Amino acid sequence: MKNTAILGASHKPDRYAYKALKMLEEYKHVVHLIHPRYKKVEGYNVFPNLTSLKDRHNDIHTLTVYVNPKILESYLDDILYLAPKRIILNPGTEHSELQAKFIENDIEVVIGCTLVMLRTNQF
Q: pTM (2 decimals)?
Protein backbone atom coordinates (compact mmCIF):
# COMPACT_ATOMS: atom_id res chain seq x y z
CA MET A 1 0.00 0.00 0.00
CA LYS A 2 1.03 3.60 -0.53
CA ASN A 3 2.70 5.65 2.22
CA THR A 4 0.27 8.50 2.75
CA ALA A 5 0.68 11.64 4.83
CA ILE A 6 -2.19 13.76 6.11
CA LEU A 7 -1.36 17.45 6.36
CA GLY A 8 -3.72 19.01 8.88
CA ALA A 9 -4.39 15.87 10.91
CA SER A 10 -7.15 16.07 13.49
CA HIS A 11 -8.21 14.19 16.60
CA LYS A 12 -11.83 15.36 16.16
CA PRO A 13 -14.09 12.64 14.68
CA ASP A 14 -16.25 15.20 12.85
CA ARG A 15 -13.27 16.51 10.80
CA TYR A 16 -12.57 15.18 7.34
CA ALA A 17 -8.88 14.73 8.15
CA TYR A 18 -9.88 12.35 10.95
CA LYS A 19 -12.31 10.53 8.66
CA ALA A 20 -9.54 10.21 6.06
CA LEU A 21 -7.25 8.66 8.69
CA LYS A 22 -9.86 6.07 9.61
CA MET A 23 -10.65 5.22 5.99
CA LEU A 24 -6.97 5.02 4.99
CA GLU A 25 -6.53 2.57 7.88
CA GLU A 26 -9.55 0.60 6.66
CA TYR A 27 -7.94 0.34 3.21
CA LYS A 28 -4.64 -0.75 4.79
CA HIS A 29 -2.56 2.27 3.80
CA VAL A 30 0.46 3.30 5.84
CA VAL A 31 -0.48 6.67 7.32
CA HIS A 32 1.65 9.49 8.72
CA LEU A 33 0.12 12.53 10.39
CA ILE A 34 1.32 16.14 10.35
CA HIS A 35 0.11 18.85 12.70
CA PRO A 36 2.22 21.42 14.56
CA ARG A 37 0.35 21.16 17.88
CA TYR A 38 -0.50 17.47 18.31
CA LYS A 39 1.87 14.82 19.61
CA LYS A 40 -0.46 11.82 19.17
CA VAL A 41 -3.72 11.08 17.36
CA GLU A 42 -5.39 7.67 17.61
CA GLY A 43 -2.12 6.12 18.75
CA TYR A 44 -0.10 7.61 15.89
CA ASN A 45 2.89 9.81 16.55
CA VAL A 46 2.22 13.13 14.86
CA PHE A 47 5.01 14.92 13.04
CA PRO A 48 5.16 18.66 13.75
CA ASN A 49 6.12 19.46 10.13
CA LEU A 50 6.90 17.91 6.77
CA THR A 51 10.68 18.13 7.15
CA SER A 52 10.63 15.97 10.27
CA LEU A 53 8.49 13.47 8.36
CA LYS A 54 10.95 13.45 5.43
CA ASP A 55 13.83 12.86 7.85
CA ARG A 56 12.14 9.66 9.07
CA HIS A 57 10.27 8.51 5.93
CA ASN A 58 11.78 9.26 2.57
CA ASP A 59 9.13 7.48 0.50
CA ILE A 60 5.84 9.35 0.86
CA HIS A 61 3.70 8.58 -2.15
CA THR A 62 0.67 10.75 -1.40
CA LEU A 63 0.20 13.91 0.62
CA THR A 64 -3.47 14.58 1.27
CA VAL A 65 -4.19 18.14 2.36
CA TYR A 66 -6.68 19.34 4.98
CA VAL A 67 -5.53 22.92 5.61
CA ASN A 68 -6.88 26.10 4.09
CA PRO A 69 -5.08 27.55 1.05
CA LYS A 70 -3.48 30.40 3.02
CA ILE A 71 -1.90 27.94 5.46
CA LEU A 72 -0.92 25.69 2.56
CA GLU A 73 1.18 28.55 1.14
CA SER A 74 3.42 28.40 4.20
CA TYR A 75 4.13 24.71 3.49
CA LEU A 76 5.28 25.13 -0.12
CA ASP A 77 9.02 24.71 0.47
CA ASP A 78 8.45 21.78 2.83
CA ILE A 79 6.16 20.03 0.33
CA LEU A 80 8.77 20.43 -2.38
CA TYR A 81 11.39 19.05 0.03
CA LEU A 82 9.15 16.09 0.90
CA ALA A 83 8.67 15.49 -2.85
CA PRO A 84 5.61 13.24 -2.72
CA LYS A 85 4.61 11.57 -5.97
CA ARG A 86 1.09 12.99 -5.61
CA ILE A 87 -0.74 15.66 -3.66
CA ILE A 88 -4.49 15.54 -3.12
CA LEU A 89 -6.08 18.93 -2.59
CA ASN A 90 -9.33 18.09 -0.85
CA PRO A 91 -12.34 20.42 -1.24
CA GLY A 92 -11.53 23.85 0.17
CA THR A 93 -7.75 23.46 -0.09
CA GLU A 94 -7.31 24.29 -3.78
CA HIS A 95 -4.68 26.90 -4.70
CA SER A 96 -3.97 27.43 -8.41
CA GLU A 97 -0.55 29.09 -7.98
CA LEU A 98 0.70 26.29 -5.73
CA GLN A 99 -0.78 23.67 -8.04
CA ALA A 100 1.39 25.06 -10.85
CA LYS A 101 4.49 24.91 -8.61
CA PHE A 102 3.76 21.31 -7.65
CA ILE A 103 3.37 20.32 -11.29
CA GLU A 104 6.62 22.15 -12.19
CA ASN A 105 8.31 19.95 -9.58
CA ASP A 106 6.88 16.69 -10.96
CA ILE A 107 4.26 16.25 -8.25
CA GLU A 108 0.96 14.98 -9.58
CA VAL A 109 -1.89 17.23 -8.41
CA VAL A 110 -5.33 15.77 -7.81
CA ILE A 111 -8.26 18.01 -6.98
CA GLY A 112 -10.58 15.63 -5.22
CA CYS A 113 -11.78 14.07 -2.02
CA THR A 114 -9.64 11.37 -0.45
CA LEU A 115 -12.73 9.70 1.01
CA VAL A 116 -14.50 9.50 -2.35
CA MET A 117 -11.31 8.39 -4.10
CA LEU A 118 -10.89 5.52 -1.65
CA ARG A 119 -14.51 4.40 -1.89
CA THR A 120 -14.47 4.48 -5.70
CA ASN A 121 -11.08 2.76 -6.09
CA GLN A 122 -9.47 5.88 -7.57
CA PHE A 123 -6.92 6.29 -4.81
A: 0.95
